[in-house]
Structure formats: structure tokens, C-alpha cells
Specification:
The chain is of the alpha/beta class and 290 residues long. The protein is built from 13 helices and 9 strands. The model has no long low-confidence stretch (mean pLDDT 94).
């Protein structure tokens, strides 16, 4: 384009302007001082407490833009423990605890007993990914996990083995763990704010599979129930795997009997034990072919 083209932009892009600054040969006390840095290139400035609202906006925008560019229309979100072993690792977990306390041995056995849920998470992710549902040019039910180990790894692994891409929404923690090896690299996203991460889990979710887990899984599961119960979010299939686990650690019937929720609120989720159970419920809900 020339300067006479009507469609030519008249301002330089920010990236090009930044290069102008870098290429400036003159080094003076003024140009070398942090105050002279372009605001969007000044990390120390961006990390100031006063810039928290801007960081919120960036953490909302970046994943949204990347998922739009990846043509992700909807997701199958999979929540669950970061501690449940795969079937191949279950016996090793028991063996590792054999010299420990009775409590340690009990915990190891109970975690090993839950290895079947790693397998079901894998099967569900693979099954849905193989269906490769496309609507209006957008990919539907793209598998999305927290990007970590165990149940999350099983989800991304199932999608990967189906030849499909999948999403991992990691979070920065003091005991940082790398994303599991099965997350699609350009869909491997990292968050500072739990609130923004949880928002992105649900913005595109058209079904959520919840496996046995700890505080994080409880937090995500109960927030989802609350959003739907209060009408802030339209109903979607919530697939709750492991009735023995969940009814042991949460007495849902008692909460209803105490009157703090309605009996009908117990219908917000659907009990599942197998990947087939889950897909049958999703396909019935959306009137899809099985």
C-alpha cells in the first residue's frame, strides 16, 4: 500500500512502535530510566497492585481470543483429583505405602481403588473426541481439563489418543506442576487468578463431568451447581462419577432434608459410573445421535 490508499492504516501498530524504541541508538539517563519504558512493555508497572483490574482484563481476553481463533465452539469440561493413579500405577501406590502407617496404607488403597475413574475419564474424553462434532464451522465438546495430572491427564490423554486437540487450564501455585504431556500446546493456558480460570471453564461448557476429587473439585462442582440453581447459568448436563465416593463425603439428601436446598436441586446432576452412561445423558439432553 502507498500513503494514498484509503484502506491503509495511518498509525503504526504497537509492535512496530516498540521496535522504534528498541532501535533508537541514543542512550541517555532519560531513555535508560524505567519511567521511559512503554507502559505495555514495562513488566514492573503491569505487576503493580493498582494494575490488578488490567490484569483481570488481560486474563479474560487472552484465553477467549485464543479459543476463538482455534474455532472452539463448546467444551466438555472434566474436573477431578490430581492424586488418583492410573490403573498402571495403582499397585505401585499401594506398594509405596506398605512401610508407612496404617492410615497411609488405607489412603493408598482407597486411591488405588479409584484408578477405575482414570480409565473412565480417558474413555469419555476419547469417545467424545472421536465423534468430532462440528456445528456452524465450530468444534463442539472439545475436551477441557485443569491441565494437571491424574483425572486431568486422563482427559487430555483420551482426546490425544483420538487424534483430537484438547484444552488445559493450568493455575500458578507455589508447588507449580507442569501441564500434562497430552494438552495441545497452543491450547495450554496458564492463569494467575482462580476466578478467571473458573470463568473460562464454564464460558464454553456444554457438559461437565465431575470425578472424585478434593477441595478444588468440590469448589468447581458446587460453584457450578450454585450458578444453575440460582438461574445465573442455563442448565447443562452435570455428570457426577462415583456415587459411593460422593455419598460418603457429602450427604446430599440430608442437605435437602434440612431445607437449605430444595429436593428438586438434587436433579441438577446425573449419577454416572461409566463413560457410556455420561455420553447417553449428554446425547439425550441435546438430542444428539449416540
Amino acid at each position: 500500500m502507498t500513503e494514498k490508499d484509503l484502506n491503509d492504516r495511518k498509525f503504526y501498530p504497537a509492535e512496530q512502535e516498540a521496535r522504534f524504541t528498541e532501535d533508537c541508538p541514543e542512550q541517555t539517563p532519560q531513555t535508560q530510566h524505567p519511567a521511559y519504558k512503554l507502559a505495555f512493555r514495562d513488566t514492573d508497572f503491569l505487576l503493580r497492585d493498582e494494575l490488578r483490574p488490567v490484569r483481570f482484563q488481560l486474563e479474560l481476553l487472552k484465553p477467549e481470543m485464543l479459543l476463538d481463533e482455534a474455532r472452539v465452539g463448546s467444551t466438555l469440561v472434566m474436573y477431578g483429583s490430581a492424586r488418583i493413579p492410573s490403573p498402571d500405577e495403582a499397585q505401585a501406590k499401594i506398594d509405596a505405602a506398605k512401610d508407612g502407617s496404617e492410615y497411609d496404607q488405607l489412603v493408598a488403597k482407597r486411591l488405588a481403588d479409584k484408578a477405575k475413574y482414570y480409565e473412565e475419564a480417558y474413555k469419555l474424553a476419547r469417545m467424545v473426541s472421536e465423534k468430532a462434532i462440528i456445528e456452524e464451522g465450530l468444534r463442539q465438546f472439545v475436551v477441557c481439563s485443569g491441565g494437571g495430572p491424574s483425572i486431568m491427564e486422563a482427559a487430555n490423554r483420551g482426546a490425544s489418543d483420538a487424534g483430537a486437540e484438547s484444552i488445559g487450564l493450568n493455575i500458578i501455585l507455589p508447588h507449580e506442576q507442569a501441564p500434562n504431556a497430552y494438552v495441545t500446546p497452543y491450547l495450554s493456558l496458564n492463569f494467575h487468578y482462580f476466578a478467571l480460570r473458573k470463568m473460562h471453564f464454564l464460558l464454553r461448557a456444554r457438559a461437565v463431568a465431575v470425578f472424585p476429587g478434593g477441595f478444588g473439585t468440590f469448589d468447581e462442582f458446587f460453584e457450578l451447581l450454585t450458578l444453575i440453581q440460582t438461574g445465573k447459568m442455563k442448565p447443562i448436563p452435570i455428570l457426577l462419577f462415583g456415587k459411593d465416593f460422593w455419598t460418603r463425603v457429602v450427604d446430599f439428601e440430608a442437605i435437602a432434608e434440612e431445607g437449605t436446598i430444595s429436593k428438586k436441586d438434587l436433579d441438577l446432576f446425573h449419577w454416572c459410573e461409566t463413560a457410556e452412561d455420561a455420553w447417553d445423558h449428554i446425547s439425550d439432553f441435546y438430542e444428539l445421535e449416540r
